[in-house]
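REVIEWER CHECKLIST
Item 1: Sequence provided? yes
Item 2: Single chain? yes
Item 3: Sequence as submitted:
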Amino acid sequence: MTLKQKTKKIKSLIQEMDSALVAFSGGVDSTLVLALAHEVLGEKVVGVTAQSPSIPNRELQASRQLAKEIGSKHLIIKTAEMSNPEYQSNPANRCYHCKTELYSSLKKFAKRKKISHILNGINSDDLGDYRPGLDSSREQGIRSPLVEADFNKQDVRNLSRKMGLSIWSKPAMACLSSRIPYGQPITSEKLTRVEQAEDFLLSLGFKQVRVRHLGTEACIELDKDEIPRYQNDKSIRSSVQKKLMILGFSSVLLDPEGYKMGNLNKALFEHKDHV
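Item 4: Structure as written out by the authors:
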């Protein structure tokens, strides 16, 4: 299908709904879903963003701004995945526990407000990665209109750009817990440390940033195009080292391979290869 045909299909899917709640993270995918749902259903749509220690404050602020840009109703609700020991222990299916908490909270809200459908921003490319959160969305009957209309990530960016959404080129974003290797406990302190470290790197102008919390060591991942700037600017390296050690890291390394989506998932597959 062409992008035009896919767009027509997704609008048709949404048009069949009486009302909708969009699980709105402020990322490119859920922003497009919210924008399309608002275009089709107007006031019968609300975007709902989760607030928890694993979500950077910068993303909450961005979600508010984006909802205002779209003209959609928007709410922020608190989720409590950090109170779940199964989530805190950081197993390989950590995302399942997170999404179960999120979707359960959204379903309660939707029931109170008599909203008929809950939508997320999963696209067809997401189906090829290890994403245990997908199991939760299926179990709880969450609709994925981008998947149903066969939108991949490039389709999402292309349509977002065509619609004039400011977020169309925003780098991918995952929750802060994804910075901590599976099996290492998740704590609010670790998440705060990672958030502040990434905020500092972003303030220096880096666009694609991950700070992996490896025990007491920080491993910085940047887009490959941005690595030379970090390596060649002594003042930047020095200020980053100083800041991250103040935050509590004992050492700071740069991953020479750069950022890759799902980097920590590699350990899962390597383990399977050796079993």
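Item 5: Key structural point noted by reviewer: The radius of gyration is 19 Å.
Item 6: Recommendation: ____
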